[in-house]
């Protein structure tokens, strides 16, 4: 059955199956959703009934890297479970990884702890823009941004991403988000009301777009000119695909004289979402002076086990990350093949970072809320594009960090729903 899923003559399913194990060496059959529900207690496995395939929240099904498992076990055996006040070895670990991966030189004193990236963003905005104001946000984007900004006194100004043109399986052209709308951003910055802060998601979630150095340089120039504080969420950067290039914003911001910080963590790249440890990195000394005024609780609320996990990820689990990126790339090729074969009306522009697919379901004939129909009738849980802001209606975010068997099963279910309707 699966041999029909072909791209450029390659058997995508066989490629995705590979040696029959996930990046940690766990056999694929042990990642059967029915088995994972018995072992895991995160919302991915408890939010929906057992007959629903959960491909929504950004958690991998893959087993955590053995190097990270051992680091956490050693910490527990040593009863090293107390409070934190500073990043300690994590500053060295993140600086080493950033230098080796992207040529970004981070000074250890510019690294500050936060519970998670969402907390890091909130606390950074509180320090840099205590009075709130108007915040620009490129959309469609991660729905959590809208939620965390409720804690702050900001008016959100949505600036839709520019469309990129891609070809459908039938040869037609269609648009999907492709780049920052720098003209619209400049207009908003220069408007009478102006913009006080900008939330950059680089690589962008849900599209998997790592913005180019040209785009980021222009954004930094505009931010410096109009005194706009930029917080860059770069949590997905370690998952940049082999053919793509990720460019960190901080060095560009520092060169342009823009006020900026970066928030990041090993939590997405190494499947540590619940470990509750992240960093806020100052782009320069000026930004660092303000980060030094963060309340002490921002650090003490961070998990020390999460810190051990992050250190092990950045230092010791890089080979696991490489295998994971290769698996995601294989799963993406499988998804493209499945959509072309079973659901040609679905439009999908593959991203080049991460494991989240942003797919356009508007052509399936499932009404205004296709994600709800897919959940109720096909029993597949996806993220609803309507929650991602302007431009998201009719889209869905699908998690590819699963067994290839799970991806095939999910697309089969959706295809059967569409076929039955027709």
Short description:
The protein has 422 residues and is α/β, with parallel strands linked by helices. It contains 16 helices and 17 strands. It folds into two domains: 2-61 and 318-421, Alpha-Beta Complex (Aspartate Aminotransferase, domain 1), CATH 3.90.1150; 70-316, Type I PLP-dependent aspartate aminotransferase-like (Major domain) (Aspartate Aminotransferase, domain 2, 3-Layer(aba) Sandwich), CATH 3.40.640.
Describe the protein in words:
This protein has 16 helices and 17 strands. The chain folds into two domains: 2-61 and 318-421, Aspartate Aminotransferase, domain 1 (Alpha-Beta Complex); 70-316, Aspartate Aminotransferase, domain 2 (3-Layer(aba) Sandwich), CATH 3.40.640. By secondary structure, it is α/β, with parallel strands linked by helices. β9, α9 and β10 form a beta-alpha-beta unit. The strands form five sheets. The chain has a seven-stranded mixed sheet with strand order 4-12-11-10-9-5-6, with helices on both faces. A four-stranded antiparallel sheet has the order 13-14-17-16, with helices on one face. α8 packs parallel to α9.
Task: Provide the descriptors you would attach to this structure in a database record.
single chain, four-stranded antiparallel sheet, disordered N terminus, alpha/beta, 422 residues, Aspartate Aminotransferase, domain 1, Aspartate Aminotransferase, domain 2
Considering the protein shown, what is the CATH homologous superfamily of the largest domain? Type I PLP-dependent aspartate aminotransferase-like (Major domain)
Tally of helical runs: 16
Taken together, the total number of domains comes to 2
Provide the helix percentage.
Answer: 25-40%
Which blocks of ≥5 consecutive residues have pLDDT under 50? Answer: 1-9
CATH domain class of the largest domain: Alpha Beta
């Amino acid at each position: 059955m699966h041999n029909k899923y072909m791209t450029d003559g390659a058997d995508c399913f066989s490629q995705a199956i590979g040696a029959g194990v996930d990046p940690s060496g766990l056999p694929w059959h042990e990642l059967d959703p029915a088995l994972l529900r018995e072992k895991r207690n995160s919302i991915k496995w408890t939010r929906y009934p057992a007959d629903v395939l959960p491909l929504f929240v950004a958690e991998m099904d893959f087993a955590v890297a053995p190097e990270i498992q051992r680091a956490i076990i050693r910490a527990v055996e040593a009863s090293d479970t107390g409070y934190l006040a500073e990043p300690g070895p994590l500053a060295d670990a993140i600086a080493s990884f950033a230098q080796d991966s992207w040529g970004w030189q981070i000074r250890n004193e510019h690294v500050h702890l936060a519970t998670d990236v969402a907390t890091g963003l909130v606390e950074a905005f509180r320090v840099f823009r205590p009075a709130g104001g108007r915040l620009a946000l490129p959309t469609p984007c991660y729905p959590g941004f809208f939620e965390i900004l409720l804690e702050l006194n900001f008016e959100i100004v949505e600036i839709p991403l520019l469309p990129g043109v891609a070809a459908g399986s039938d040869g037609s052209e269609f648009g999907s988000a492709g780049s920052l709308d720098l003209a619209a951003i400049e207009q908003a910055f220069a408007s009478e009301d102006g913009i006080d802060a900008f939330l950059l998601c680089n690589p962008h979630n849900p599209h998997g777009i790592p913005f180019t150095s040209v785009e980021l340089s222009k954004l930094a120039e505009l931010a410096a000119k109009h005194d706009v504080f930029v917080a860059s969420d770069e949590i997905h950067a370690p998952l940049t695909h082999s053919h793509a290039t990720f460019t960190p914003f901080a060095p560009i911001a520092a060169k342009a004289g823009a006020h900026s910080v970066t928030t990041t963590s090993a939590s997405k790249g190494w499947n540590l979402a619940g470990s509750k440890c992240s960093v806020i990195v100052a782009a320069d000394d000026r930004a660092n002076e303000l980060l030094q005024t963060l309340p002490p609780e921002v650090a003490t609320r961070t998990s020390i086990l999460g810190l051990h996990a992050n250190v092990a990820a950045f230092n010791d689990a890089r080979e696991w990350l490489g295998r994971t990126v290769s698996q995601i790339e294989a799963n993406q090729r499988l998804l493209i093949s499945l959509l072309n074969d079973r659901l040609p009306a679905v439009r999908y522009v593959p991203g080049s970072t991460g494991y989240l697919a942003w797919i356009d379901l508007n052509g399936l004939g499932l009404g205004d809320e296709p994600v709800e129909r897919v959940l109720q009738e096909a029993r597949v849980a996806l993220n609803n594009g309507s929650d991602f802001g302007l431009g998201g209606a009719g889209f869905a975010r699908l998690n590819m960090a699963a067994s290839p068997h799970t991806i095939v099963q999910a697309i089969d279910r959706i295809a059967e729903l569409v076929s039955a309707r027709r």
